[in-house]
Design goal:
Pfam family, one: NUDIX
Protein name: NUDIX domain-containing protein
Keywords: Hydrolase
Number of domains: 1
Structural class: alpha+beta
GO molecular function, one term: hydrolase activity
CATH class: Alpha Beta
Largest sheet: 7 strands, mixed
Cofactor: Mg(2+)
């Protein structure tokens, strides 16, 4: 019997802060230093809202206040061993409060405040093309209510 296939569910934040968007510069195992949203994997004991709040705090040191869902994005990548992996990314828009943590998650080098134009000018530094797709949706004013996600339990 073959193993059951499951997508990797990730969350990402488009954080409005001081008139720009907050990003992280991180060390990746595959591509070296890259710019990314504060983002990460959904863990077994949390819903997507809890996950994005946790990830933003861990990666930026700021508490995150989600205000809307930006979108749901599917992406296929090939791992270094050639194995295809599918990701379902749930992107949120929100703001952050004052910094609460100085120590950030290990792969994070620093947080950055960059305009959409500054991000678009650095495509070779971005971790994923999904960042630009989300940025397009962000700029177009695309927003969905947080209660679009229903948690049964």
């Amino acid at each position: 019997m073959s193993a059951r296939w499951k997508p990797n569910v990730t969350v990402a934040a488009y954080i409005e802060h001081e008139g720009k968007l907050m990003w992280v510069r991180e060390m990746t195992s595959r591509d070296g230093v890259r710019i990314n949203n504060a983002a990460g994997h959904l863990e077994a004991d949390e819903d997507p809202l809890q996950a994005v709040c946790r990830e933003v705090l861990e990666e930026t040191g700021h508490p995150f206040q989600p205000e809307a869902i930006l979108g749901f994005y599917l992406s296929d990548i090939r791992m270094t061993d050639g194995e295809p992996v599918r990701f379902l990314r749930i992107a949120f828009v929100g703001s952050v409060g004052p910094r609460e943590r100085e120590v950030l998650d290990e792969p994070i080098i620093e947080t950055l405040l960059l305009s959409p134009e500054e991000i678009r000018a650095r495509p070779h530094e971005l971790r994923s093309p999904l960042m630009l797709r989300g940025l397009d949706d962000y700029g177009a004013g695309r927003r969905f209510p947080l209660d679009l996600i229903r948690v049964q339990g």
